[in-house]
Structures are given as C-alpha cells and as structure tokens.
TrEMBL record:
Residues 476-525 form a coiled coil. The keyword Coiled coil applies. It comes from the Eukaryota. TPR repeats lie at residues 180-213. It comes from Microctonus aethiopoides. GO terms for cellular component: Cdc73/Paf1 complex. One of its GO terms (molecular function) is RNA polymerase II complex binding. Keywords: Coiled coil, Repeat, TPR repeat. The keyword Repeat applies. Residues 566-576, 596-607 have a biased composition (Basic and acidic residues). SUPFAM superfamilies: TPR-like (SSF48452). GO terms for biological process: regulation of DNA-templated transcription; transcription elongation by RNA polymerase II. This is RNA polymerase-associated protein CTR9-like protein. Residues 532-661 are annotated as: Disordered.
Amino acid sequence: MLGCIEIPLCDSDEVVELYPDQLPDSDEVIGILRREHAQLHIWINLALEYYKQQKIEDFIKILKSSRIYANVDYQSKRDIAKNYFRIVTESVPDNVEAWIELAQMQENDWNASLNAHKTAKKILKEKVGAEVRPEILNNVGSIHHRLGNLEEARKNYEESLLCSKIYAQDNPIYYNPLSVTTTYNLARVYEELYRFDRAEKLYKDILKEHPDYIDCYLRLGCMARDKGQIYEASGWFKDALQIDNEHRGAWSLLGNLHLAKMEWGPAQKIFERILKNPSSRNDKYSLIALGNISLNTLHQSGKDKNREKRHQDRALAMYEKVLHIDPNNIRAANGIGVVLAHKGYLNEAATTEFCDVWLNIAHIYVEQKQFVMAIRMYKNCLRKFYKYHHACRVAPQDTELLYNVALVLERLAEQILKDEKSTLTTVLQAVHELELSHKYFQYLATLGDSMKQLAEPEVRECQDLLLQAQYHVARARRLDEEEKMLRRKLEDEKQAFKLRQAEEQQKLEELRRQKEKEILQKRQEYIQKTKNIRVFGDMPTEKTPGKKGRRPRTDQYVSDCDGLGGEERREDAAPREKKKRKISSEGLSRGKGKKRNEERSGSESDRRRAKRARKLDSGKNGRKLAPEVTRNNSRFLSKETISTSESESDKDVNNKQVVMR
C-alpha cells in the first residue's frame, strides 16, 4: 500500500490519514485542511496526488485554496507551490484558473505576475471567447499601479468598474464590494496623477455609500495635508478615529501633523499611545518616530551634556529595537547613522542607496563647514531620488514653502533696489517680485495658519519697500536714459570713424592704381625706346660714293709702355706701323682723327702707368712682373698695353674688333 498523507489535528496529537488510492472529493479535503489550519506543504502534497491521478480540476482547486487558507510559515514552501502551478500551466496551457493562481502566487515578482495575467486575458478573449472578469482587470491595474504605470492602471481600473456594474446585476453580493475596491484604487491613481479634484470626488462618493470606509478618511486627510491645510487634515483623521478609536494608521498620521508643526510633545504622546496598545506595541513606524523626536529635541538641549547624552541614548535605543524586529529596516539604520554622526563617528555613519542617508551626509558636510561638498550632495540627492525639483509645483498650497518663497523674493528685491548699479530691467523685475511677495504674505496672514504670526510683519516690510521702489525705479530709469545716450554717442562716433577709414582706404586705393598706371606707362615708353635703339644699331654704315678700295683698319694695338722691352716692341712693330700708315694715307682726314685719338690714349696710358708705379713702390712685398715674360715672349703682354680711346669707341662702335694673338 502506498504511503499515506497525515493531517495533524489542532487540539490533539491525533492525525487524519489520507491514502492516495482512496482520495475523497476535493471539497471535503479542503474543508479538513481549513479546519485544522494545515501547513502549506500538506496542501501541496495532496494537490500533487490529485495531479498524478489526472484530476486537474481538483488539483487547481486545492492549490487555489492553499494560497488563501494555508498556514505558510516559510517562503520555500510557497516557491514549491509556484513550481506546481507552472507544471499545470505547461501541462494544460489553456487553463485560465491556473494562470490566474500562478499570477497571484508571484505577488513579489510584479513583472512575472503581470505576464501571467496577460496570458489569462488572452486565453479568455481568443480561445474561450469570454469577457475578462472584473477581478482580473482590477489585479492587472493594481500591478501596473505598483510598477508606476499610472495611465495603464487607470485604464484597467475604469474597465473593471464598467464590467463590475454589468456583473453586479446577476451577483451583487460579490461584485458590489469589488466595485468599491476598484473605485478606491482609481482614486489613488488620480491622486498620484495630481488630479486631486477627481480623487476627492471618488473618495467622497465611496463615503456616501460606505461611511465606515476609514481609508477614504485617511486619504482625504493626506490630500489636505499636502495642500497645507493642516486643520482640515486633522479633522479628517479625527473622523476616522471616531469610527475606530484604536486605528493605528489614523493615530500615526495625526502624530505626523504635530511633527510637521514641530510640536514634539503632542507627537510624542500620540506615538507612545500607539506603543501601549498590545496589538501595536512593536509598531516600527511609531518607534522610528519616537527616535526622530529624540533627535530633534537633542538640538534644543543647549550646553547640557547630560540631557544631550540622554536624548542620544533614547534615540539609539528606539532604532536598535526596530532593527531587532526588522533587521532590513533602512530607516532605523539611517537613524543610527545620524546618532553616530552626532556623536562624532562620521566615517561609521556613512552609507548609500537611501535618500535620507544622502541628505544626512550633506548635513554632515554642513556641520564640518564643507559647504561646496554639501551643495553637491544635496544636488546629487535631488537628481537621484526626486523626480520633481520644484517644491512649489509639487505642493503649491504648502504654507511653509509659500512663506520661504515669499521671503526669498522679498530679500532679493531689497538687495537689487539698494544696488545703485542695477539696470532698469532688473529693478522692474525686482519690483514685480516684491509685489508677488507682498501678495503671498497677505495670503498667509489671513489664512489663520501657524505662518500668520511670521507673515504679518513681512506684509508691513513689503509695503515699505514698495513705497521706496518708486524712487529706485526713477533712478534706474534716469541711469538707463544716460546709458542709452552714451551708447548712442559712442555708436555715432564709431560709424564716423568707420566712414573716415573707408574714405582713406578709398584714397589710398586710388593712389595705388594711379601709381601702377604711371609705372605701366613708363615701362611701355622704355620698351618703345629700346626697340628704336635696336633698329638704328642694326642699320649698315653708308659708303662714300666714288671712293673704292679696301676699308681701312681702325682697330690697333697701341702701347706706350716705357718699361723693359718697350723699345724692342716698337722696333718689332715698326714694319706693321708703316703698313698701317700706307693704308691710312688713302684717307687723310681719317688719319688725322686717328692720330688725335692715339695722342689722347697715350696721355691716359701715361697716367695709368704712373699710378701703377706708385702702387708697386708702396709695398715691399708687392708682386713684380716676370722679366722673362715681358722680354722674351712678345705674345704675353701687360694689361696696361691694351688701350681703347673714348673717341675711337664713340666714332666707330660697331666696327671695333679685338684681336688676340
């Protein structure tokens, strides 16, 4: 026989034995398990036996009931249940109930749960051909809500409400409460979308039909608190306490109102009252709140070291108690870090991944007077943890924020008006902001809130500044006119200077073009003259008519050198001279001119020879002519022996020839 499954009885040591081959009806088994508060693993084992016998409907029914009624004392059994539901969805993929139960078992994995719900919706629409039930739509909307997909959540909630109204006609007992829950969820979505009017209407509609719905009172109070309407918020919380005087949430929110107004005494009494209740003596929120109160009163202890130490120890004890209850509570850990920082243990106080921790690290930098690092830390905290960086847009009715904004506008306007160098635009903007600040202070002074006493003197201060503003505006306007005139004058001078520069540039350009034109003209004239010279130089010499004979030779070597060998050269050259004379006798007039040229060249050669003699005598190491060269070799002659008279070159330039022997 197969092993039996034992179900222990609550009030005795006896057990109920169920054998797999003799399993009763699933409803009977569920009744026994519910009555005896059976552990989850017993439910799972029984469901598995039904599954082995191909009793899928009984299997699903037991698993579905186990999620609601089973006594779950450890998470591993829940994980086993998830695995069994996965087995069912793989074996029977069209089973809608299995997908819905799997989605609800995966409540800690929102994406997986959403996918399972989507699969169930798809099966219902495409394969079963049925409408999606309102509870499924509400669950899908709730998952989108938790994931931050507010628009998708709104659509699913609204669709669920429409379906609930239709289904409520046949089964009002089940679907009317579901409709109320969905309406509340939809109001929460509108609240997070900052559509407070729609959310407020839905909350009040619920209270008309169900005046004991405490969560609606609490949400209305929170909305009033966020708008800065503290007294109205307190009224809503007190209405909730009239329904349930021991409601922990209502007392906590009421204590928070006192904390926001820095009323430490009343807040402390409220949280201590919560802890005195046996059902909430380990309330983590109240313990952390009392620790925070001790930290805030710590700064008011002055120089009393004993009182300061007492507050530190009390705060530390509260945070440690929370960590004993919940070791993963980040707020308690952060509170301990604050206490350590206040005691001087700065390195031990630092940690990350929590916005309050970043803020407290920034506060530590402020205490250390490292203001640059503090500003950087505050900015990083805003960038990392806060989506909206403008506090007035997040909570436009918050009186404290409004007071701070008005005060900043007033102080900035005052500084700008006192600055004599402020421009007209800046002054006018400052006056506008001062008027806005005055309106803010007037609103706060008539609101009757805790800001009234602070706002009233600022109203008078703004009025005085507005009276003085006319003088500052007139002064700024006068300075602006003077600046405009000076700017206009400088602009005119600049334009005149540019005009003069353009005229001078034009004149220089004109002179340059004129000069280039003259140079080009002279060049053309020069080219024309050189052409004429070439033409006349190439023309042949005209012969004297009637005279024939050989052309006389005009180029001769003439040497009047008196040095060594001079006479010998003359004697050697005598026959040639006679020949020349014979030739030159044919032309008497030409010979006479030639003689004059020779005399002139002779006198010039004498002067040259005398000059060279002086140069040779002045230097002892001067060079001497080689006698052998001058005497024996008549072919090597001195440079001074070659002479050409100017008259000869002028007379017959074209016929001059130089003969080297």
